[in-house]
Amino acid sequence: MPKPSVYDILNKKRRGEALTDFEITAVVTGFTWGGIPDYQMSALLMAIAIQGMTTREQAALMRAMLESGERWNLRARFDFLADKHSTGGVGDKVSLALAPWVASCGIHIAMLSGRGLGHTGGTLDKLESIPGFNAHLTRDEIERCLADVGCAITTSTEGIAPADRKLYALRDVTGTVESIPLITASIMSKKLALGPSALILDVKCGAGAFMKSEDEALELARSLLSAARGTGTTAEALVTRIDAPLGRAVGNANEVIEAMDILRGDGPEDVTTLVLALATRILVMSGRFDESSARTTLEEAVRSGRAIEHARRWIEAQGGDAEVVDHPKRLPSPSRTLEVKAARSGYVHAIDPYGVGMLAIRLGAGREKKEDSIDYAAGILFERVTGDRVAAGDTLARVQIGSREVEEADELSAKLADLIRIDNLAPERRPLIVEHLTGTPSEGRRSNEGQPGHRPRL
Description:
Number of strands: 13
Radius of gyration: 22 Å
Oligomer: single chain
Strand content: 5-15%
């Protein structure tokens, strides 16, 4: 078959026509190995962002990106291997608690995770606040961790989906990050390269998410599930709401501490509910548990101390200082703390998660530029969360100044106060978990998890 013309492909997609599998594979392969210049690929990405893709096109794009690099198929070695992906959110430390909790119940779980993106924090940045923690495992090291402690979290290697790395660098500067076909191909090409038996997806919607509405999040969730069909990986998705920071800690070291609190049964209600819901689905997907026995097993792992002990073993297996689990002062600590107080009495009606995420970046907890270093001790701790009643003068939050001084610290503290809205009336409580979707297109259900009055029994 003759090599397709890139110029013809660009015009075809610009007109809104569907590309063939051969055309998609040819253009992804050509770009990955240097045969197609950035300017032509940028034009195609923009055409895709504007015109969209059919389900078949999305599947072809994902396969081409997946096949651009190594495929590990780790489920061939382990009888069952789970993976989890979140679309990101402020205060999202779910993976840090989920991995050891699931592993403590006898289920293997591995995750290729990323760094902070925009206003959202990164799992790898949080883990690297632990002294000595190695977040750059080779395939052999991942397999060793899985064999020894049942879980591993690491960054993607150079050999996994190289097409995605090159394409994402262009998407980041061409306004095409939020395209659902491109998001789908990016996420699934990396996840499927690992070769898990099952994948649970946490697709977020709301003020702190990339997908602002429930409909947008549902569309993305369905797209991701569609991409998994026929790959040998069972996939499910929870669409979850993030209209405020998740939990009480936003940063890196402080989020590690909060994740350990979850494993002791002392974590904030919202993030504990979410971790438990995701962990329950993983156990059920393994085929060894039903919904009831999965929850019972997870709750018992916390009560018995097995979950927190597994966290110690996992951190040590990846080279980290396991003493941080019991002695959090071994983590990077703030040099000073500024209190943000309530100017009036009432109820905490809303906390702007986007604004909080951007403020945390200015404190040094995230990156404004790719080459910036992270200040692991910097962050924000909320003393009051949405729905809490407060009196004038109560402490709402604490701004943690890290190892480097921030000249505008007082200004940022004042800005944080502006991001916390206090009203006379308590806000309406909306469910944390909006919908549970399985890999079958017609299936999906509203969940009782996260409903007002629902609290996990730990």
